[in-house]
Amino acid sequence: MAPAEVTNPPAPESAKTDEPKPDVAPPAAPSPGAPEAPAASPTVADPGAPGASPSAPGAVAPTVTTGDKPNPAATPAGKARAEKPATAPCHGSFACFVQELRVLAQEKGIRKEVFDAAFAGMSPDPQILPLTRAQPEYNRPVGQYVVTRSGQLVGPGRAQVARLSGVLGKIQQQFGVEPEVIVSIWGIESGFGAVGGHLDVIRSLATLAHARYRDNFFRDELISALHILQAGDVPRGRLVGSWAGAMGQPQFMPSSFDKYAVDFSGDRKRDIWTNVPDVLGSIGNYLRGHGWVADLIWGYEVVLPPDYGFVFSRGTFNDWTARGVRRSDGGALAGDTEAYLLFPSGARGPAFLVTKNYEVIKSYNFSDPYALAVLSAADRMRGRAPWRSSWPADDFPLTRENRIALQRALTRLCAYSGEFDGHIDFDQRDAVRDLQRERGMTPDGNPTGALLEYARTKPAPSECRGISQSR
Using one digit for the tens of pLDDT, what is the confidence trace for 298-340? Predict the structure, then answer.
């Protein structure tokens, strides 16, 4: 599937993938949905930014979507929090929920008048829960998502990089992040500012927490949003965002705003809704805060030798060269940079060697399709050639619900000891490789429905002796 470059792209998706943005919308649950789609990201639904900044030329209007994380709204470490037992139930009473929240807010330093003003006359928003089921990055083949989304960003993104070269240069100097990467994220999150979310953030978060949809996560974000109001960063009427609470053009969750939003324009306000320098600077600060390494390539598309045995998943560029792996563009693959061999659609699709900076992009929205779309677009904005390999047309990623089921199965098999958040990292892909090898499947680390079924039915060991995964 050759990447297509679209001059006037369709509406972008807002939200990050597996968690509120900077992350995607979670699996449907009895209670309201949270991010998992545009995790707040990978892509959070409903990005229309209030008072959006002047629409830049070629802006792509984002669509209301959800990713595997509430879009993308960026959550401070970009990681979803573990579900904890909820507090004493209110038996569905929103008024009771608000009273309990009032006590927590006061314990967290929120003044009574701030809380009362924020919740005056409030009721749950009936449009929120249905939006939690949308997962744009997970309801179509990986390649289709990557090719389409990246193609929508290239032309308009190049125009934005040229138009904003001055401020983007200063941001790169301060945070070490290339202009094309920042602009690519800006484009996928809000269509370069055309859309940013128009829903009442306090009401959206309260609706999700009350419905006990990842309630601890959204309750914490609600407290962070109240702190934003109390600090005077933005007036109550302008505290708007996506259904998952992802705010402004970069679709930050409130806690990410508190930690990573910056005043890059020098007007003494952190405005990610209408101030473009603040928006772009905040994205740069977020990435640097999550470990972005200046001048480090994010990775390369690679070609494997015909007799490749799928034994290794990690090594330096020098190691991979010694194993017969080559860059698809013919360039040199050398040095001691550590890289992971990723098959986002399994061995039938493209292969990539990815570095630490690739993982940093996933902290914004924990979705491989999202990260690949962002980085493919950024590369092509710089004039690099599209990737050469074709993508399988039938490779649909596991839903968040099934990814969590896989994590539970891996835990039962003593191959995973982390949170049940649906975020499949490289260690879990290595555990998948082990199971695939054991089952006689190609050990490419790509979790599929067949692999999940095998993991679910495999007998558990009598005791766990530590987690052992292939490298």
Answer: 999 999 999 999 999 999 999 999 999 999 999 999 999 999 9
Rounded to two decimals, the pTM is: 0.82
Say if CB 364 and CB 287 are below 8 A apart: yes
Q: Tokens 């990447």 map to which residue?
A: 3
User: What is the CB neighbour count within 10 angstroms for residue 130?
Assistant: 13
Give the Å distances, CA to CA, from 258 to 54, 74, 173, 282, 464: 24, 11, 23, 11, 40
**How far is 361 from 373, CA to CA, in rounded Å?**
11
**Residue 189 catalytic?**
yes
51 neighbors 275 (Cβ within 8 angstroms):
no
What's the CA gap between 282 and 158, in Å, rounded? 20
pLDDT of residue 163: 98
Q: How many residues belong to the chain?
A: 471
Q: What is the mean pLDDT of the chain?
A: 83
Alpha-carbon gap, residue 218 to 209, rounded angstroms: 5
Strand partners, 352: 301, 342
Please name which of 130, 137, 44, 117 lies closest in space to residue 424, comparing C-alpha atoms. Answer: 137
Out of 13, 36, 180, 189, the active site residue is: 189
